[in-house]
Amino acid sequence: MKFRIKIMVCMLCLVSLLFGVGSSALILISFQNGLEQERDTAENSYRLLIYTLQMSGETEMFPESENIQDTLRQIAGQRGSYWDSVVLSGGDGVVYSQGKAAEYMTRTEERGNEESCVVTSFRTDNGSAYIRVSGGFSSGDQTMYLEAGHDISSLYEKREYQQKIYRIIFVTAMIICAVFSYGMAYLLTRPLSVLAKGAREISGGNFSFRTNICSGDEIGSLSKDFDRMSEQIENNVRELERAVERQERFVGSFTHEMKTPMTAVIGYADLLRSQRLTEEERRDAADYIFSEGRRLERLSMKLLDIYVAEKTDVRLSIHSPGRIAENVADHLRPVFEKKKITLKGKYEKGKCLLEPDLFRSLTVNLIDNASKAAGEGGHIWMAVRMTDEGCVLCVEDDGPGIPEEAREHLTEAFYRVDKSRSRKQGGAGLGLTLCAEIVNLHGGNLVFKKRRGGGTRVIAELRGGRYEK
Asked: For residue 383, which of 395, 400, 370 has the smallest C-alpha distance?
Protein backbone atom coordinates (compact mmCIF):
# COMPACT_ATOMS: atom_id res chain seq x y z
CA MET A 1 0.00 0.00 0.00
CA LYS A 2 1.36 3.42 -0.93
CA PHE A 3 2.21 5.87 1.82
CA ARG A 4 -0.34 8.43 0.61
CA ILE A 5 -3.09 5.76 0.87
CA LYS A 6 -1.97 5.01 4.41
CA ILE A 7 -2.19 8.70 5.28
CA MET A 8 -5.68 8.91 3.79
CA VAL A 9 -6.87 5.82 5.70
CA CYS A 10 -5.44 7.17 8.96
CA MET A 11 -7.15 10.52 8.40
CA LEU A 12 -10.47 8.80 7.65
CA CYS A 13 -10.19 6.67 10.78
CA LEU A 14 -9.36 9.69 12.91
CA VAL A 15 -12.12 11.89 11.49
CA SER A 16 -14.70 9.10 11.64
CA LEU A 17 -13.80 8.39 15.27
CA LEU A 18 -13.89 12.02 16.37
CA PHE A 19 -16.87 13.01 14.24
CA GLY A 20 -18.82 9.84 15.04
CA VAL A 21 -18.24 9.94 18.78
CA GLY A 22 -18.80 13.68 18.98
CA SER A 23 -21.98 13.73 16.89
CA SER A 24 -23.44 10.65 18.58
CA ALA A 25 -22.72 12.16 21.98
CA LEU A 26 -24.40 15.45 20.97
CA ILE A 27 -27.51 13.64 19.67
CA LEU A 28 -27.69 11.49 22.80
CA ILE A 29 -27.24 14.44 25.13
CA SER A 30 -29.88 16.43 23.23
CA PHE A 31 -32.30 13.52 23.43
CA GLN A 32 -31.64 12.94 27.13
CA ASN A 33 -32.11 16.63 27.88
CA GLY A 34 -35.40 16.66 25.96
CA LEU A 35 -36.56 13.51 27.75
CA GLU A 36 -35.59 14.96 31.14
CA GLN A 37 -37.48 18.14 30.37
CA GLU A 38 -40.54 16.09 29.40
CA ARG A 39 -40.28 14.16 32.67
CA ASP A 40 -40.06 17.37 34.70
CA THR A 41 -42.94 18.95 32.78
CA ALA A 42 -45.04 15.81 33.14
CA GLU A 43 -44.36 15.59 36.89
CA ASN A 44 -45.21 19.26 37.44
CA SER A 45 -48.36 19.00 35.31
CA TYR A 46 -49.36 15.85 37.17
CA ARG A 47 -49.01 17.53 40.59
CA LEU A 48 -51.04 20.47 39.32
CA LEU A 49 -53.72 18.04 38.09
CA ILE A 50 -53.83 16.22 41.45
CA TYR A 51 -54.05 19.54 43.26
CA THR A 52 -56.90 20.64 40.99
CA LEU A 53 -58.78 17.40 41.57
CA GLN A 54 -58.36 17.66 45.33
CA MET A 55 -59.47 21.28 45.38
CA SER A 56 -62.46 20.43 43.19
CA GLY A 57 -63.59 17.68 45.56
CA GLU A 58 -63.28 19.87 48.64
CA THR A 59 -65.04 22.84 47.04
CA GLU A 60 -68.04 20.93 45.77
CA MET A 61 -68.22 19.01 48.98
CA PHE A 62 -68.86 15.76 47.15
CA PRO A 63 -67.24 12.80 48.81
CA GLU A 64 -68.12 10.59 45.93
CA SER A 65 -65.93 10.19 42.87
CA GLU A 66 -68.51 11.57 40.42
CA ASN A 67 -67.39 15.11 41.03
CA ILE A 68 -63.76 14.13 40.51
CA GLN A 69 -64.62 12.28 37.30
CA ASP A 70 -66.49 15.24 35.98
CA THR A 71 -63.62 17.61 36.79
CA LEU A 72 -61.12 15.20 35.25
CA ARG A 73 -63.26 14.88 32.14
CA GLN A 74 -63.34 18.66 31.73
CA ILE A 75 -59.62 19.11 32.25
CA ALA A 76 -58.55 16.24 30.01
CA GLY A 77 -61.06 17.12 27.36
CA GLN A 78 -59.89 20.67 26.97
CA ARG A 79 -58.28 21.60 23.70
CA GLY A 80 -54.51 21.89 24.05
CA SER A 81 -54.45 19.81 27.20
CA TYR A 82 -51.01 18.43 28.08
CA TRP A 83 -52.30 14.95 28.83
CA ASP A 84 -53.26 12.62 26.00
CA SER A 85 -54.57 9.76 28.17
CA VAL A 86 -55.71 9.51 31.79
CA VAL A 87 -56.95 6.66 33.95
CA LEU A 88 -58.61 7.08 37.34
CA SER A 89 -59.06 4.04 39.51
CA GLY A 90 -60.10 3.30 43.03
CA GLY A 91 -60.71 0.33 45.23
CA ASP A 92 -63.40 -0.97 42.89
CA GLY A 93 -61.21 -0.71 39.80
CA VAL A 94 -61.12 1.81 36.94
CA VAL A 95 -63.68 4.53 37.35
CA TYR A 96 -62.59 6.76 34.49
CA SER A 97 -60.50 6.21 31.35
CA GLN A 98 -59.73 8.48 28.40
CA GLY A 99 -57.23 8.37 25.51
CA LYS A 100 -55.77 5.88 23.06
CA ALA A 101 -53.03 4.75 25.44
CA ALA A 102 -55.29 4.37 28.51
CA GLU A 103 -55.30 0.60 28.32
CA TYR A 104 -51.44 0.46 28.32
CA MET A 105 -51.09 2.57 31.49
CA THR A 106 -52.76 0.00 33.76
CA ARG A 107 -50.63 -2.90 32.56
CA THR A 108 -47.70 -2.04 34.82
CA GLU A 109 -47.78 -2.81 38.49
CA GLU A 110 -45.50 0.12 39.28
CA ARG A 111 -47.82 2.70 40.84
CA GLY A 112 -47.24 5.80 42.96
CA ASN A 113 -48.93 6.74 46.24
CA GLU A 114 -50.13 9.85 48.05
CA GLU A 115 -46.64 10.83 49.11
CA SER A 116 -44.81 10.46 45.76
CA CYS A 117 -45.54 9.83 42.14
CA VAL A 118 -43.77 7.47 39.76
CA VAL A 119 -42.66 8.56 36.27
CA THR A 120 -42.16 5.80 33.67
CA SER A 121 -42.34 5.42 29.91
CA PHE A 122 -43.83 2.84 27.56
CA ARG A 123 -44.63 2.16 23.93
CA THR A 124 -47.92 1.18 22.36
CA ASP A 125 -48.35 -1.57 19.81
CA ASN A 126 -48.21 0.92 16.94
CA GLY A 127 -44.82 2.23 18.16
CA SER A 128 -45.95 5.46 19.81
CA ALA A 129 -43.91 6.47 22.85
CA TYR A 130 -45.55 7.82 26.02
CA ILE A 131 -44.40 9.13 29.34
CA ARG A 132 -46.56 7.88 32.28
CA VAL A 133 -47.00 9.51 35.68
CA SER A 134 -48.72 7.53 38.41
CA GLY A 135 -49.71 8.63 41.91
CA GLY A 136 -52.48 8.59 44.51
CA PHE A 137 -54.61 11.05 46.44
CA SER A 138 -57.38 10.89 49.08
CA SER A 139 -60.97 11.50 48.17
CA GLY A 140 -63.16 11.34 51.21
CA ASP A 141 -62.51 8.12 53.00
CA GLN A 142 -60.97 6.34 50.01
CA THR A 143 -57.74 6.48 48.08
CA MET A 144 -57.87 7.20 44.37
CA TYR A 145 -55.07 6.45 41.86
CA LEU A 146 -54.47 8.54 38.77
CA GLU A 147 -52.31 7.53 35.80
CA ALA A 148 -51.69 10.25 33.23
CA GLY A 149 -49.88 9.75 29.89
CA HIS A 150 -48.29 12.19 27.46
CA ASP A 151 -47.25 11.30 23.91
CA ILE A 152 -43.51 11.91 23.43
CA SER A 153 -43.25 10.27 19.99
CA SER A 154 -42.16 13.61 18.54
CA LEU A 155 -39.10 13.49 20.75
CA TYR A 156 -38.05 10.11 19.29
CA GLU A 157 -38.91 11.26 15.79
CA LYS A 158 -36.67 14.28 16.31
CA ARG A 159 -33.85 11.98 17.39
CA GLU A 160 -34.34 9.74 14.36
CA TYR A 161 -34.33 12.80 12.10
CA GLN A 162 -31.11 14.04 13.70
CA GLN A 163 -29.54 10.61 13.22
CA LYS A 164 -30.60 10.58 9.58
CA ILE A 165 -29.09 14.03 9.01
CA TYR A 166 -26.00 12.89 10.92
CA ARG A 167 -25.54 9.89 8.62
CA ILE A 168 -25.84 12.09 5.52
CA ILE A 169 -23.38 14.63 6.93
CA PHE A 170 -21.07 11.81 8.06
CA VAL A 171 -20.92 10.22 4.62
CA THR A 172 -20.41 13.62 2.97
CA ALA A 173 -17.70 14.51 5.47
CA MET A 174 -15.93 11.18 4.86
CA ILE A 175 -15.95 11.75 1.10
CA ILE A 176 -14.61 15.29 1.48
CA CYS A 177 -12.03 14.09 4.00
CA ALA A 178 -10.92 11.27 1.68
CA VAL A 179 -10.48 13.63 -1.28
CA PHE A 180 -8.77 16.32 0.78
CA SER A 181 -6.48 13.95 2.70
CA TYR A 182 -5.47 12.10 -0.46
CA GLY A 183 -4.72 15.40 -2.21
CA MET A 184 -2.67 16.67 0.72
CA ALA A 185 -0.88 13.33 1.05
CA TYR A 186 -0.12 13.38 -2.68
CA LEU A 187 1.36 16.88 -2.43
CA LEU A 188 3.35 15.93 0.67
CA THR A 189 4.67 12.63 -0.70
CA ARG A 190 5.36 13.78 -4.27
CA PRO A 191 8.89 14.91 -3.27
CA LEU A 192 9.48 11.38 -1.98
CA SER A 193 8.63 10.09 -5.46
CA VAL A 194 11.22 12.49 -6.89
CA LEU A 195 13.77 11.22 -4.35
CA ALA A 196 12.93 7.62 -5.27
CA LYS A 197 13.36 8.48 -8.94
CA GLY A 198 16.69 10.08 -8.10
CA ALA A 199 17.84 6.91 -6.33
CA ARG A 200 16.87 4.87 -9.38
CA GLU A 201 18.66 7.30 -11.72
CA ILE A 202 21.84 7.18 -9.66
CA SER A 203 21.71 3.38 -9.36
CA GLY A 204 21.33 3.33 -13.16
CA GLY A 205 24.47 5.43 -13.64
CA ASN A 206 22.94 8.89 -14.15
CA PHE A 207 24.98 10.69 -11.49
CA SER A 208 24.09 14.15 -12.80
CA PHE A 209 20.43 13.82 -11.69
CA ARG A 210 19.31 16.38 -9.08
CA THR A 211 15.98 16.53 -7.27
CA ASN A 212 15.96 20.36 -6.90
CA ILE A 213 13.17 20.24 -4.29
CA CYS A 214 12.80 23.64 -2.63
CA SER A 215 10.89 23.52 0.66
CA GLY A 216 11.62 24.53 4.22
CA ASP A 217 10.60 21.24 5.81
CA GLU A 218 12.43 18.00 6.57
CA ILE A 219 11.85 16.70 3.04
CA GLY A 220 13.53 19.81 1.65
CA SER A 221 16.52 19.22 3.93
CA LEU A 222 16.60 15.58 2.86
CA SER A 223 16.50 16.68 -0.79
CA LYS A 224 19.46 19.04 -0.28
CA ASP A 225 21.42 16.27 1.44
CA PHE A 226 20.48 13.90 -1.38
CA ASP A 227 21.67 16.39 -4.03
CA ARG A 228 24.91 16.93 -2.14
CA MET A 229 25.37 13.18 -1.95
CA SER A 230 24.68 12.88 -5.69
CA GLU A 231 27.17 15.64 -6.44
CA GLN A 232 29.79 13.98 -4.24
CA ILE A 233 29.16 10.61 -5.89
CA GLU A 234 29.45 12.22 -9.32
CA ASN A 235 32.71 13.89 -8.33
CA ASN A 236 34.04 10.63 -6.88
CA VAL A 237 33.08 8.70 -10.00
CA ARG A 238 34.73 11.31 -12.22
CA GLU A 239 37.82 11.20 -10.04
CA LEU A 240 37.85 7.41 -10.26
CA GLU A 241 37.48 7.62 -14.02
CA ARG A 242 40.36 10.10 -14.20
CA ALA A 243 42.40 7.86 -11.90
CA VAL A 244 41.71 4.88 -14.17
CA GLU A 245 42.70 6.96 -17.19
CA ARG A 246 45.90 8.05 -15.43
CA GLN A 247 46.65 4.47 -14.46
CA GLU A 248 46.09 3.29 -18.02
CA ARG A 249 48.33 6.07 -19.34
CA PHE A 250 50.93 5.21 -16.70
CA VAL A 251 50.93 1.52 -17.64
CA GLY A 252 51.11 2.36 -21.34
CA SER A 253 53.83 4.96 -20.88
CA PHE A 254 55.82 2.78 -18.49
CA THR A 255 55.61 -0.14 -20.92
CA HIS A 256 56.76 2.09 -23.75
CA GLU A 257 59.59 3.58 -21.68
CA MET A 258 60.80 0.11 -20.75
CA LYS A 259 60.33 -1.40 -24.20
CA THR A 260 62.51 1.05 -26.13
CA PRO A 261 65.77 0.64 -24.14
CA MET A 262 65.18 -3.06 -23.55
CA THR A 263 64.77 -3.62 -27.28
CA ALA A 264 68.00 -1.75 -27.95
CA VAL A 265 69.88 -3.64 -25.22
CA ILE A 266 68.66 -7.03 -26.44
CA GLY A 267 69.40 -6.14 -30.08
CA TYR A 268 72.95 -4.95 -29.47
CA ALA A 269 73.63 -7.78 -27.03
CA ASP A 270 72.51 -10.29 -29.64
CA LEU A 271 74.69 -8.52 -32.19
CA LEU A 272 77.70 -8.83 -29.91
CA ARG A 273 76.87 -12.47 -29.21
CA SER A 274 76.16 -13.71 -32.72
CA GLN A 275 78.47 -11.73 -34.99
CA ARG A 276 82.10 -10.83 -35.25
CA LEU A 277 82.55 -7.08 -35.00
CA THR A 278 85.47 -4.78 -35.21
CA GLU A 279 86.79 -3.18 -32.06
CA GLU A 280 85.12 0.12 -32.92
CA GLU A 281 81.77 -1.57 -33.60
CA ARG A 282 81.98 -3.48 -30.34
CA ARG A 283 82.75 -0.24 -28.50
CA ASP A 284 79.81 1.53 -30.09
CA ALA A 285 77.50 -1.37 -29.22
CA ALA A 286 78.76 -1.48 -25.65
CA ASP A 287 78.38 2.30 -25.30
CA TYR A 288 74.76 2.12 -26.55
CA ILE A 289 73.98 -0.75 -24.16
CA PHE A 290 75.59 1.26 -21.31
CA SER A 291 73.64 4.43 -22.12
CA GLU A 292 70.33 2.58 -22.35
CA GLY A 293 71.14 0.78 -19.11
CA ARG A 294 71.78 4.11 -17.40
CA ARG A 295 68.48 5.33 -18.80
CA LEU A 296 66.70 2.36 -17.25
CA GLU A 297 68.55 3.02 -14.00
CA ARG A 298 67.40 6.68 -13.94
CA LEU A 299 63.86 5.58 -14.67
CA SER A 300 63.88 3.05 -11.84
CA MET A 301 65.43 5.56 -9.42
CA LYS A 302 62.80 8.16 -10.25
CA LEU A 303 60.04 5.65 -9.63
CA LEU A 304 61.73 4.64 -6.39
CA ASP A 305 61.93 8.28 -5.28
CA ILE A 306 58.22 8.76 -5.96
CA TYR A 307 57.34 5.56 -4.12
CA VAL A 308 59.51 6.49 -1.14
CA ALA A 309 58.06 10.01 -1.06
CA GLU A 310 54.53 8.62 -1.01
CA LYS A 311 55.24 6.09 1.74
CA THR A 312 57.67 8.10 3.90
CA ASP A 313 56.50 9.61 7.16
CA VAL A 314 58.10 13.02 6.67
CA ARG A 315 59.64 14.66 9.71
CA LEU A 316 59.93 18.40 9.24
CA SER A 317 62.73 20.35 10.85
CA ILE A 318 63.92 23.95 10.95
CA HIS A 319 65.90 24.97 7.87
CA SER A 320 66.51 27.95 5.63
CA PRO A 321 64.88 27.26 2.21
CA GLY A 322 66.69 30.23 0.65
CA ARG A 323 70.11 28.87 1.62
CA ILE A 324 69.25 25.39 0.27
CA ALA A 325 67.96 26.80 -3.04
CA GLU A 326 71.01 29.06 -3.40
CA ASN A 327 73.34 26.11 -2.78
CA VAL A 328 71.58 24.05 -5.46
CA ALA A 329 71.80 26.96 -7.93
CA ASP A 330 75.53 27.37 -7.28
CA HIS A 331 76.16 23.69 -8.04
CA LEU A 332 74.06 23.72 -11.23
CA ARG A 333 75.28 27.04 -12.64
CA PRO A 334 78.54 25.66 -14.15
CA VAL A 335 76.55 22.97 -15.99
CA PHE A 336 74.11 25.57 -17.36
CA GLU A 337 76.92 27.85 -18.43
CA LYS A 338 78.16 25.15 -20.78
CA LYS A 339 74.65 25.13 -22.33
CA LYS A 340 74.63 28.95 -22.38
CA ILE A 341 71.65 28.98 -19.99
CA THR A 342 71.50 31.89 -17.56
CA LEU A 343 70.36 31.08 -14.00
CA LYS A 344 69.50 33.98 -11.69
CA GLY A 345 68.10 33.80 -8.17
CA LYS A 346 66.63 35.87 -5.37
CA TYR A 347 66.50 34.26 -1.94
CA GLU A 348 64.69 35.78 1.04
CA LYS A 349 66.20 35.04 4.42
CA GLY A 350 64.24 33.15 7.02
CA LYS A 351 63.56 29.70 8.38
CA CYS A 352 60.60 27.34 8.24
CA LEU A 353 59.74 23.70 8.83
CA LEU A 354 60.62 21.42 5.90
CA GLU A 355 62.45 18.23 4.97
CA PRO A 356 65.79 19.42 3.50
CA ASP A 357 66.51 16.46 1.19
CA LEU A 358 63.03 16.57 -0.31
CA PHE A 359 63.19 20.35 -0.70
CA ARG A 360 66.57 20.00 -2.43
CA SER A 361 65.11 17.34 -4.77
CA LEU A 362 62.14 19.64 -5.45
CA THR A 363 64.47 22.52 -6.36
CA VAL A 364 66.68 20.37 -8.59
CA ASN A 365 63.76 18.91 -10.52
CA LEU A 366 62.08 22.28 -11.07
CA ILE A 367 65.31 23.87 -12.31
CA ASP A 368 66.09 20.85 -14.50
CA ASN A 369 62.62 20.96 -16.00
CA ALA A 370 62.98 24.72 -16.63
CA SER A 371 66.36 24.22 -18.32
CA LYS A 372 64.84 21.69 -20.72
CA ALA A 373 62.05 24.13 -21.54
CA ALA A 374 64.35 27.11 -21.97
CA GLY A 375 66.91 25.30 -24.13
CA GLU A 376 70.30 26.60 -25.19
CA GLY A 377 70.65 30.35 -24.72
CA GLY A 378 67.61 30.50 -22.43
CA HIS A 379 67.07 32.15 -19.08
CA ILE A 380 65.90 30.76 -15.72
CA TRP A 381 64.80 32.83 -12.72
CA MET A 382 64.43 31.31 -9.28
CA ALA A 383 63.09 32.98 -6.12
CA VAL A 384 62.39 31.90 -2.54
CA ARG A 385 59.91 33.94 -0.51
CA MET A 386 58.92 33.38 3.12
CA THR A 387 55.26 33.25 4.16
CA ASP A 388 53.34 33.00 7.43
CA GLU A 389 52.81 29.28 6.83
CA GLY A 390 56.19 28.37 5.36
CA CYS A 391 57.76 29.41 2.08
CA VAL A 392 57.16 29.71 -1.66
CA LEU A 393 59.61 28.47 -4.31
CA CYS A 394 59.11 30.05 -7.73
CA VAL A 395 60.97 28.93 -10.90
CA GLU A 396 60.48 30.70 -14.24
CA ASP A 397 61.79 30.13 -17.75
CA ASP A 398 61.50 31.90 -21.09
CA GLY A 399 60.74 28.77 -23.08
CA PRO A 400 57.80 28.17 -25.43
CA GLY A 401 55.37 27.74 -22.54
CA ILE A 402 52.82 25.08 -21.75
CA PRO A 403 49.48 24.74 -23.57
CA GLU A 404 46.40 25.36 -21.42
CA GLU A 405 45.01 21.84 -22.00
CA ALA A 406 48.31 20.24 -20.89
CA ARG A 407 48.63 21.92 -17.49
CA GLU A 408 46.30 19.60 -15.60
CA HIS A 409 48.32 16.57 -16.77
CA LEU A 410 51.81 17.89 -15.96
CA THR A 411 52.09 16.03 -12.65
CA GLU A 412 51.01 12.69 -14.12
CA ALA A 413 53.72 10.07 -14.41
CA PHE A 414 55.41 9.82 -17.85
CA TYR A 415 53.46 12.79 -19.20
CA ARG A 416 55.44 15.04 -21.57
CA VAL A 417 54.30 18.17 -23.36
CA ASP A 418 56.87 17.59 -26.14
CA LYS A 419 57.55 13.87 -26.07
CA SER A 420 60.28 13.81 -28.72
CA ARG A 421 62.30 16.65 -27.21
CA SER A 422 62.00 15.34 -23.64
CA ARG A 423 63.10 11.89 -24.65
CA LYS A 424 66.16 13.32 -26.48
CA GLN A 425 67.02 15.25 -23.32
CA GLY A 426 66.86 12.10 -21.24
CA GLY A 427 63.60 12.86 -19.44
CA ALA A 428 61.14 10.20 -18.43
CA GLY A 429 58.24 12.49 -17.44
CA LEU A 430 58.56 11.73 -13.70
CA GLY A 431 60.19 14.91 -12.36
CA LEU A 432 57.03 16.96 -11.88
CA THR A 433 55.24 13.92 -10.46
CA LEU A 434 57.90 13.73 -7.75
CA CYS A 435 57.67 17.51 -7.21
CA ALA A 436 53.91 17.35 -6.72
CA GLU A 437 54.31 14.57 -4.15
CA ILE A 438 56.99 16.51 -2.23
CA VAL A 439 54.82 19.65 -2.13
CA ASN A 440 51.86 17.58 -0.99
CA LEU A 441 53.92 16.12 1.87
CA HIS A 442 54.57 19.70 3.02
CA GLY A 443 50.86 20.52 3.00
CA GLY A 444 51.12 22.81 -0.02
CA ASN A 445 50.23 22.92 -3.67
CA LEU A 446 52.00 23.14 -7.04
CA VAL A 447 50.73 25.74 -9.56
CA PHE A 448 51.69 26.23 -13.21
CA LYS A 449 51.11 29.65 -14.79
CA LYS A 450 51.86 31.33 -18.06
CA ARG A 451 54.69 33.83 -17.73
CA ARG A 452 54.24 37.32 -19.09
CA GLY A 453 56.50 37.67 -22.08
CA GLY A 454 56.55 33.94 -22.80
CA GLY A 455 57.53 30.89 -20.83
CA THR A 456 56.26 29.18 -17.71
CA ARG A 457 56.13 30.08 -14.02
CA VAL A 458 56.02 27.18 -11.53
CA ILE A 459 55.00 28.08 -7.97
CA ALA A 460 55.55 25.56 -5.18
CA GLU A 461 53.89 26.73 -1.96
CA LEU A 462 54.98 24.82 1.16
CA ARG A 463 52.89 25.08 4.35
CA GLY A 464 54.95 23.05 6.78
CA GLY A 465 55.02 25.92 9.27
CA ARG A 466 57.01 29.09 9.94
CA TYR A 467 59.83 29.25 12.47
CA GLU A 468 59.99 32.38 14.59
CA LYS A 469 62.89 33.26 16.87
From this structure: 395
